[in-house]
Amino acid sequence: MKVLQKIQSELKANKGQYNNFGGYAYRSCEDILEAAKPILAKYDAAITLSDDIVLIGDRYYVKATATLTIEVNNTKAMTFTTTAFAREAVARKGMDESQITGSASSYARKYALSGLFALDDTKDADTMDNRAKPATQETTKPTPAADKLVVARAKKCKTQAELNALWHKLQEELGDSFADVKGVYTVVFAQRKAEIAKAGATNANN
Question: What band does 90 get if pLDDT is binned at 50, 70 and 90?
Answer without folding.
Answer: low
